[in-house]
């Protein structure tokens, strides 16, 4: 038996104001998208903004459903739209922001497991990493250089 240690280097910014200008602008668009969330059940609003290699920004927010599992997270709403509208165009960066109508969200909110898997699929497809920035409604912002830092031991098409 031998042990494997898994580690990742993440960057933590004290606030969105510390981010590079282009990422700050992307985060602002994620925050705007967050306010368009349809989340009457959880009251948890999430927005995501993608920066594509062609300079386009695609945004998405979580869309809930009375049949709970039929809803979709903000990240996948945006990623699938980008894939549908601009097939073959790489996603360079994702910014994510979340807030709740019930409590303050000051801890950076990372993408859920299913969204990590979806982001991983696009990294594999485009053969380039995607920078991921996530925050709550205010406060610290965490940056990961690639989904592999948030989802180690990725299951991808090489196993099929
Ligand atoms: N949600 C997202 O939009 N993204 C995530 O990565 C985590 C969760 C949404 C799904 C649901 O509408 C609400 O947040 C509560 O889970």
UniProtKB/TrEMBL annotation:
<dbReference type="Pfam" id="PF00383">
    <property type="entry name" value="dCMP_cyt_deam_1"/>
</dbReference>
<dbReference type="InterPro" id="IPR006262">
    <property type="entry name" value="Cyt_deam_tetra"/>
</dbReference>
<comment type="function">
    <text>This enzyme scavenges exogenous and endogenous cytidine and 2'-deoxycytidine for UMP synthesis.</text>
</comment>
<keyword id="KW-0479">Metal-binding</keyword>
<feature type="domain" description="CMP/dCMP-type deaminase">
    <location>
        <begin position="21"/>
        <end position="149"/>
    </location>
</feature>
<dbReference type="GO" id="GO:0004126">
    <property type="term" value="F:cytidine deaminase activity"/>
</dbReference>
<comment type="similarity">
    <text>Belongs to the cytidine and deoxycytidylate deaminase family.</text>
</comment>
<dbReference type="InterPro" id="IPR002125">
    <property type="entry name" value="CMP_dCMP_dom"/>
</dbReference>
<keyword id="KW-0378">Hydrolase</keyword>
<dbReference type="InterPro" id="IPR016192">
    <property type="entry name" value="APOBEC/CMP_deaminase_Zn-bd"/>
</dbReference>
<dbReference type="InterPro" id="IPR016193">
    <property type="entry name" value="Cytidine_deaminase-like"/>
</dbReference>
<dbReference type="InterPro" id="IPR050202">
    <property type="entry name" value="Cyt/Deoxycyt_deaminase"/>
</dbReference>
<keyword id="KW-0862">Zinc</keyword>
<protein>
    <recommendedName>
        <fullName>Cytidine deaminase</fullName>
        <ecNumber>3.5.4.5</ecNumber>
    </recommendedName>
</protein>
């Amino acid at each position: 038996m031998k042990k494997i240690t898994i580690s990742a280097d993440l960057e933590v910014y004290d606030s969105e104001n510390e981010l590079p200008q282009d990422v700050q602008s992307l985060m602002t668009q994620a925050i705007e998208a967050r306010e368009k969330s349809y989340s009457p059940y959880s009251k948890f609003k999430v927005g995501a903004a993608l920066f594509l290699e062609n300079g386009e920004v695609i945004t998405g927010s979580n869309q809930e459903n009375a049949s709970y599992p039929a809803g979709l997270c903000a990240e996948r709403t945006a990623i699938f739209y980008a894939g549908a509208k601009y097939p073959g165009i790489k996603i360079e960066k994702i910014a994510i922001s979340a807030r709740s109508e019930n409590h303050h969200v000051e801890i950076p909110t990372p993408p859920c497991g299913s969204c990590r898997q979806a982001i991983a699929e696009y990294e594999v497809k485009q053969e380039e990493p995607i920078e991921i920035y996530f925050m709550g409604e205010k406060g610290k912002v965490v940056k990961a250089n690639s989904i592999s830092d948030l989802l180690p031991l990725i299951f991808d098409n090489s196993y099929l």
